[in-house]
Amino acid sequence: MLRKLSIDNYILIHDLEIDFFSGFSVITGETGSGKSILLGALHLILGQRADTSSLLDKSGKCIVEGQFLIKGYDLEPFFTNHDLDYDDTAVLRREINQNGKSRAFINDTPVNLSLLKELGDKLVNIHSQNSVTTLNDADFQMAILDSYARQTETLKAYQQEYRRYSKLRKDLDELKNREARTKGELDYYRFLLDELLKANLRDGEQEESEQKLEILSHAEEIKSNLFTAAERTGRAEINILSLLNEVILGLISVSRYHPAIDDFTSRLKNNLIDLKDIFKEIEKLEEDIQFDPEEQQRLTQRIDLIYRLEKKHKALNVKELLQIIKDIEDKINTDDNLEQNIKLLESEILHIEKVLYQSAEVISKARKGIRSRFEKEVTDRLTLLGMPASRFIAEIKQLKEISMDGIDEVSFMFSANKGIAASEVSKVASGGELSRLMLAIKSMVSRKNLLPTIIFDEIDNGVSGDIAGKVGNILKGMAADMQVIVITHLPQIAGKGEHHYNVYKSEGRDVTMTLIRKLKSNERVEEIARMMSNENITAAAMKTARELLAN
């Protein structure tokens, strides 16, 4: 439950701290006094977004902090799962700086806004005047029925599996669309692959073929020059080898006369050996070089093929063409597996669908099992609220296919008068009737789910007189199981409260402030009397106020 609320620098609140208590609390105040500002501040620590318009003093920081007693509500797992320190008192805090940037904390640990909201939803339910219209919403009606049946967790598990089912169906549609798109492309890719594979490409062959073609293209010129080189080196009558041999023999004959000649002789002998080897290689190469027009044509065609493939596939060399072959093979293999993958996915979807239908039937059975009890309890509470002739029906229709909420469609049907057939709530209920119907439903569901705190913001809209007192009795009855805080403008409801707070404005020279105080017994009498009076508080109003409080 909410134990303390501290607000600094928020709209019309400069610095405020108020303690709250268990049981039934009422908050009253003149129109425009700032009751909604208190709720706005509370919304901040429950995860609502904020901006710089929240700041009273734009040069300062807005801080809102709430202390909540959470012992006995099984919230330890939440704190453990999110690495937060658990204590029986949880402190939720929001800070908003001058730039509109917000920070959130749980027990002094920084958290993101979604986590703050997740915890806030477990601590407080705020029911405002605007939320009465949500009673017309089909999703809200479904959630109410499931909450009453206490199968929220069961439904949550179903919905998690349904989301997976929906994703798989989406994946299946994408695969089928891809299969349809690639069916024509596949033949083209197979044609490309066949063309590349027939080329029988080999890494490095382009350079090798180009070199061979270069030789064949100049074979006659190469052979002619090799012939001349061989003749002059060693085959002609007068050749380099024989001349060099004569030089060596001449130097040997005079080497005994000068020591340097031996060095010349030795060096020339080495050159003679090299020249003999070169001569043999030239002769061999000359013999090997043959003009081959057929081979030249084959190489030309081969290189032309490689160039054409490179241009077609925008490749720089054969190595890139070989990679393209691999890529096309992978694509074809992947596309070939599409049909198999589609069949596997269809099989998985059918299995999940079967499980979901089974779960949906269980959920539907639970809804139908509590429907009569739910309808009776709502009707009984409407009778207590001055609507004895009302009829309420929670209509459950079965859908043809499963949905996020199972296999049911829920619609609340209502009639406030005898002889009038029940119809959809949105079509027949007035504002006051909607308020009472929502109160009846909320009082039931909140009690079943044992939420720590529920806050009603002018739930008494459209009711007055004796009905207002009955609304107050229901609210007071709810407070036996939880903390109930009600913002009201009706004295009949204010008189039922165990704790009474008054919101008022303080007018200064330069600024108007919203303040709140807890009223003492004598102050409560005066405040309730004021609520019943016009301008001046009458003695009759004071007497009636005392009677309301005494009852």
Can you characterise this structure?
The protein is α/β, with parallel strands linked by helices. Helices cover 57% and strands 18% of the residues. It has 17 helices and 15 strands. Helix 5 (152-198) runs antiparallel to helix 11 and helix 16 crosses helix 17 (539-550). The protein is elongated, with a radius of gyration of 47 Å. 27% of the residues are buried. The model has no long low-confidence stretch (mean pLDDT 88).
Please give a handful of descriptors for the protein shown.
single chain; 551 residues; alpha/beta; six-stranded antiparallel β-sheet; six-stranded mixed β-sheet; 17 helices; 57% helix
How many strands appear in the DSSP assignment?
15
Mean pLDDT equals 88
Q: What value does the Rg take, in angstroms?
A: 47 Å
Helix content: 55-70%
Shape: elongated
- Structural class of the helix and strand makeup? alpha/beta
**Spans of 5+ residues with little confidence (pLDDT < 50)?**
none
Side-by-side strand order of the widest sheet: 2-1-4-5-6-7
**Number of helices, where a helix is a run of at least 4 consecutive DSSP H or I residues:** 17
> β content, as a range?
15-25%
Largest sheet geometry: 6 strands, antiparallel
In whole angstroms, the N-to-C terminal distance is: 26 Å
